[in-house]
Write a structure and sequence with these properties.
By secondary structure, this protein is α/β, with parallel strands linked by helices. 33% of the residues lie in helices and 25% in strands. The strands form three sheets. The chain has an eight-stranded parallel β-sheet. Strand 13 and strand 14 form a beta hairpin. Helix 6 packs parallel to helix 7 and helix 7 runs parallel beside helix 8. The model has no long low-confidence stretch (mean pLDDT 97).
């Protein structure tokens, strides 16, 4: 098997700010596999809060080169690399390659429904309240907005965003920057703004503080929900788990995590790192069983891959066959 690893950089339309970090480009690692002229590709982005970087991913991808070139499968890959962006890139390339070599659609291999168009959230990044309101007004025709919070004016910001986008459904994401007191203090403003989900309000180390508490809005786990090993610790603290292929180590791990969350009685949301249509293509299969889809990575790019998944007012079109197997 031929194994090619590339580090790629895609400029963003505008800076992407969250609590404590800002990006100006999507940096990803791309894996290309080839057997007998058939090519499969996959993409992974570093999980920054797990300490991953493009450099650490490249080192991991090179460390398994002999195994990959020797024809490793998805099951064996789990034993060679931890869950994260590097394993995601190889895993998704293996899915693509297997589908193309066998002629079997991915949804049949995965046991999901066939791909359909999905309504995806689009992110309003952290900025001044006025700038966030302007950003929300520009996408007020989108069905879902995901609003990044974590500033001193969170309550003011969410009120302005709601006024700017009166008809969109809204989730908020403080990216683990809040305290429990701030979460409690924010609840009236969030309820007033008709927010439907608060994603990872507290740092994972503070998960215990959520135990036994009831809020009028669902609380979702993102940084606290990486793989199936985390699911037991979410019960009684969170109502929803956020699934990202990069965290889970690819489509294989993401499907396993989705099943585990459902078995634990938790709702599910599929989300993404800042990445391209190549990363969204496999993630859409997880989105088929999720109540919220947040696969807006390509909507943040100045230029996506060619070909790419089309997006129209937050509506995620079907994946071109030349990009990733259908």
């Amino acid at each position: 098997m031929t194994y090619v690893v590339d580090a790629e950089r895609f400029a963003l339309r505008r800076p992407f700010g969250i609590a404590g970090k800002t990006w100006t480009a999507a940096e990803v690692c791309t894996v290309t596999l080839e057997v007998d002229g058939v090519v499969g590709r996959g993409e992974g982005a570093p999980i920054f809060y797990a300490g991953e970087t493009i450099e650490s991913m490249l080192a991991q991808l090179e460390s398994v080169r002999p195994a990959v070139e020797g024809g490793i499968g998805r099951d064996e890959l789990v034993d060679l690399l931890p869950a994260g962006g590097a394993r995601c890139a190889i895993d998704c390339a293996l899915w693509d390659l297997a589908s193309r070599r066998s002629g079997t659609p991915v949804h049949e291999m995965a046991g999901t429904g066939p791909p359909v168009e999905l309504d995806s959230a689009i992110t309003v990044t952290l900025d001044t309240p006025d700038q966030m309101a302007a950003a929300a007004a520009a996408v007020a025709d989108h069905p879902w907005l995901k609003v990044k919070l974590g500033g001193a004016d969170d309550a003011h910001a969410i009120r302005l965003v709601r006024a700017a986008a009166p008809d969109s459904r809204i989730t908020v994401d403080p990216n683990a920057s809040w305290t429990l007191d701030h979460l409690v203090d924010m609840m009236p403003s969030l309820v007033e703004a008709r927010v439907e989900l608060v994603e990872q309000p507290l740092p994972p180390a503070d998960d215990d503080a959520l135990g036994g508490l009831e809020f009028p809005i669902a609380i979702g786990a993102d940084e606290s929900c990486r793989t199936v090993d985390d699911v037991a610790g979410l019960v009684g603290r969170y109502q929803l788990g956020v699934i990202k292929l990069d965290k889970a180590g690819g489509l294989t791990g993401a499907l396993e995590l989705s099943d585990a969350l459902a078995a634990a009685g938790l709702d599910r949301m599929v989300s993404c790192m800042i990445s391209t249509s190549l990363g969204m293509a496999p993630a859409r299969y997880v989105g088929l069983s999720c109540s919220i889809v947040d696969l807006d990575g390509p909507m943040n790019l100045a230029a996506d891959r060619d070909p790419s998944i089309p997006y129209t007012r937050g509506r995620m079109g079907l994946t071109p066959d030349a990009l990733w197997a259908g």
